[in-house]
Write a structure and sequence with these properties.
single chain
Length: 174
């Protein structure tokens, strides 16, 4: 079965049977109702099933000062502690996780709906360092772009529209 909508209390009743595996890749951070989304996932999966969930990795986002990844479509960001704790609260037992290089760093976690579990410890995000790195990038890039503009050169932003818009707004290119 293929669904083009978020898991929710309403959607889960449409499935004729429970699933052995539910894969949610880079969708949880877009959900405006985490509880309803995970409630739906929990009800859609067999008790001995497996949830594979992947989210933008907050710790790596901060470490890389990847501010262009923070935009209106992402309403939640997670590290291994916050995602593990959320899954435990919703009746999942986290089984393990890995950090991938996808989209500047993602967190992929496996969990079972059998309850219990762990909430792994992690390094806390360093927001002052994040801000300093972002400001340093602005000081490096804006003069370069201004020189291009003053020289009547054209610039092209290619990539995800939200990220390009975020960069253009941050660099005050409007």
């Amino acid at each position: 079965n293929l669904s083009h909508d978020f898991f929710s209390r309403a959607r889960v009743t449409e499935f004729p049977e429970l699933f052995d595996v539910v894969v949610a890749t880079n969708v949880l951070g877009h959900s405006t109702d985490l509880w309803d989304f995970l409630w739906g996932v929990r009800r859609a999966i067999r008790s001995n099933g497996l949830l594979v969930i992947e989210v933008q990795y907050l710790s790596e986002l901060v470490r890389q000062a990847a501010f262009e990844m923070i935009y209106h479509e992402h309403v939640s960001y997670f590290d291994e502690h916050s995602l593990g704790a959320l899954l435990v609260l919703k009746g999942f037992r986290p089984l393990g996780f890995e950090i991938t290089e996808t989209q500047g760093g993602t967190l992929r976690m496996w969990a079972s709906p059998s309850g219990g579990g762990f909430a792994p410890e992690c390094a806390r995000s360093n927001w002052p360092a994040f801000r300093a790195q972002v400001e340093q990038r602005r000081r490096r890039v804006v003069p370069l772009l201004e020189h291009q503009r003053n020289s009547n050169k054209l610039a092209c932003f290619y990539g995800a529209p939200a990220k390009a818009t975020q960069l253009a707004n941050f660099w005050k290119l409007g």
